[in-house]
Amino acid sequence: TPDHGATILAGNARVLIARLADARFFWENDLRKSLEDMSAPLENVVFHAKLGTQAERIERIAALAREIAPKVGADPDVAEQAARVVKADLASEMVYEFPELQGVMGGYYAKAAGLPDEVANACEAHYRPLGPSDDVPSEPVSIAVALADKIDMLTGFWAIDEKPTGSKDPFALRRASLGVIRILLTHGLRINLAPLIDRQSLKHEIRDNLDTAEERRLFILHHLLDEIADHGVFGAALHAVVEKLQGDGEEIEVGEGSWLDRLRASIPAQRDDLLSFLADRLKVALRDQGIRHDVIQACFDLGGQDDLVLLVNRVKALQEFLGTEDGANLLTGYRRASNIVAAEEKKDGVEYSGTPEDKFAEEDEERALFAALDAGEPAVAEALAGEDFAAAMAGMAKLRPAIDAFFDHVTVNAENQIVRRNRLCLLNRIRGVMRQVAIWEAIEGS
After folding, report:
1. How far apart are CA 436 and CA 134, in angstroms?
2. CA angle centred on 280, ends 434 and 396, rounded to 5°
3. Are the beta carbons of 281 and 275 closer than 8 angstroms?
4. Which residue of 51, 96, 156, 408 shows the fewest CB atoms closer than 10 Å?
5. Which residues, other chains included, contact 57 with Cβ-Cβ below 8 Å and sequence gap of 6+?
6. Is the previous residue joined to 129 through a cis bond, with omega within 30 degrees of 0?
7. 273 closest CA partner among 262, 285, 265, 261
8. Do the Cβ atoms of 124 and 104 come closer than 8 Å?
9. Is the pLDDT of residue 124 over 70?
10. Are the CB atoms for 322 and 443 separated by under 8 Å?
11. Whole-number Å distance between alpha carbons of 121 and 78
């Protein structure tokens, strides 16, 4: 341009100066309030029509962050304090005008209020990771609040059956689940998710019943929260609560169709479905590391795999084992044993799940397989109990020669029906020993 852009620069400067003046005005106005006063309007801000207000959500997150804190090396009091202020800036004038600054401004307001640095840092960090290339929170307090935020989000939408479908994910639940996975795996955090999910699902149930339920129902729900902390899983907690109340002379309806019967079915179903969703996201998260999705599924299908760090360790050991000659041949042997048993069970209309007895063994190779299983079964179980997956795979590898020899020299469908049944039960025992490690049918080609 004739003035070399001076007019453009001047126009942009006027706009920018006005915006910065607005920002300074909002900043100074916000600083006149305490964080408690700033967040007060959140009591009237609906997070979701079926999940309550932002203030109710903050209460749930604060309680969960306190529970998670010891598991991640954070101080529970500080984690709860952080959880109560990390959303405060959502009601600030600055974030209302500049929404992209949520979290960032929260950190500045927390520092201005004289709160600890770890609390201020959690304001921004608890939203992370926002994408696959974004860093995960690194400080223990931020980790506790971030996990609490995401787990409450997931359990809440699962409770109201607003799960992602196809390409639709309006509440970014896939991102939240990947966030949980990345935080746990990045820091190697050994956390059992099932009891956390059960307790948070119950909190949504409590909120849903506040206006309509009799006091007795809420009393039972709160007792269940406490019992899950002791028993770890919902089923045992429910049994303990019902047994205690009935022991105290209370009349508790637990029959088919009752409220507790519905709860007995719905809470575990929500948890299992959410854990399955996390397993699917885990496959996505580990794909770039060359981890096979079917191997992840084979380990997850064992059930009770809610410690994602332990699950990944098992998956990696199994994938490495399957890449060896022993692993590939043992998988072939498993498939052969499983197919024979399945075919004969279908034909005969019975299950060959009894305990085989070596006194009915007629061939040397048959006796050798009994001996190998007698030695291998406890060795594999002991290795798994010690989380030594390499040793568990090595224990299974020792079964391979005996299994190969059995199939090479022994006819399973013997004419003697007692011998035949015993051999089919022996093949089923192979399945049982190997299923301590994984559900091999989930591996492609099985």
Report:
1. 37
2. 15
3. no
4. 408
5. 47, 51, 87, 152, 156
6. yes
7. 265
8. yes
9. yes
10. yes
11. 12
pLDDT in tens, 406-420: 999 999 999 999 999
Does residue 274 contact residue 158 with C-beta atoms inside 8 Å?
Answer: yes
Residue of 197, 185, 436 whose CA lies nearest to 311: 185
- For residue 437, which of 373, 383, 359, 369 has the smallest C-alpha distance? 383
CB 171 within 8 A of CB 157: yes
β-strand partners of 148? none
Environment class of residue 393 by beta-carbon count within 10 Å: exposed (0-12), middle (13-18) or buried (19+)?
A: buried
Contact predicate 254/261, CB 8 Å: yes
Strands 46-48 and 52-53: antiparallel
Measured between alpha carbons, how far is 326 from 434 in angstroms, rounded to an integer? 13
Task: Using a pLDDT cut of 90, give the percent of the chain over it.
Answer: 80
DSSP assignment letter at 387: T
pLDDT at position 214: 67
Whether residue 75 contacts residue 65, with contact meaning beta carbons closer than 8 Å, is answered with no
* Residue 41: partners with Cβ closer than 8 Å, 6 or more residues away: 91
* Residue 121 C-beta-side C-alpha neighbours within 13 Å: 14
Cα distance between residue 225 and residue 248, in whole Å = 19
Q: Six-digit token pair at 228?
A: 């899950």
pLDDT tens-digit series, residues 360-393: 999 999 999 999 999 999 999 999 999 999 999 9
Please count the helices (runs of H) and the strands (runs of E) in the chain. Answer: 20, 2
Residue with tokens 């084992």: 321
Could you tell me the CA-to-CA distances from 287 to 175, 184, 256, 277, 383 in Å, in that order?
A: 16, 17, 44, 16, 27
Question: Structure tokens of 394?
Answer: 């090595």
- Confidence band for 212, pLDDT divided at 50, 70 and 90: low
Q: How far is CA 238 from the centre of its chain?
A: 21
